[in-house]
Amino acid sequence: MPRPRRKPPRSGALTELPPLKILRSILVLQLWYYTTFFIFAVFVSLVLGQEFSPDWVLDWRSVRGDNTLGWTVGFLCVVNGFVTVIPILVFISRSKLVPDFALTLHFINLLVTSFYSGAIPTNLLWWGLEAASAALMIVTGVWACRYREMQPISFGTLATKKTVNPTGDPANGSAEPLMGNNSYEMGNIRGDDNV
């Protein structure tokens, strides 16, 4: 008895995004997110003359509205969301996947922050800044990926401009068209003077 025919996998199913590649991309995004956040926080601590603490990055209580340091840490959250668009563009590079990865990154950040501080965040400023960071990451990430997707595809040849007559004499109809490359203008043709 012949074997039943095996259906080919649907396009884009497991060939484009296998589970291990998804996990690797999430891990790379998380590492980038926390590494850049720590770099920004260390830089700000040096500029402000404050002692650096990992609580700035990992504890939701450090985002406060009653002091300058709390506002600065909150600003770093949003800036870090903007900077994280770079690995999204490099590693994800598909605009329809950007919201999934950006929201996953912020959900994992919620879990890490909750476990580090021992409580679910209750600070509305922290929630608002996380929402702003996620929205900024999604909007700029989708824009960057779509911009990259819409670039013309080069097949190894350089595009060159073709000119018929470099002098562009309009009397004999060889001037560059004014409307576009493939438009034809009515012009004087030899022999029209006799008609």
UniProtKB/TrEMBL annotation:
Localization: Golgi apparatus membrane
Main location as per UniProt: Golgi
Segments traversing the membrane: 31-49, 69-92, 101-119, 125-145
Membrane topology per record: Multi-pass membrane protein
Organism whose genome encodes this protein: Cladophialophora carrionii
Keywords: Golgi apparatus, Membrane, Protein transport, Transmembrane, Transmembrane helix, Transport
Cellular component, GO, one term: Golgi membrane
GO biological process assignments: Golgi to endosome transport; Golgi to plasma membrane protein transport; protein localization to Golgi apparatus
Residue segments, region Disordered: 166-195
Domain of life: Eukaryota
Name assigned to this protein: Integral membrane protein SYS1-related
Gene from which this protein is expressed: SYS1
Family membership: Belongs to the SYS1 family.
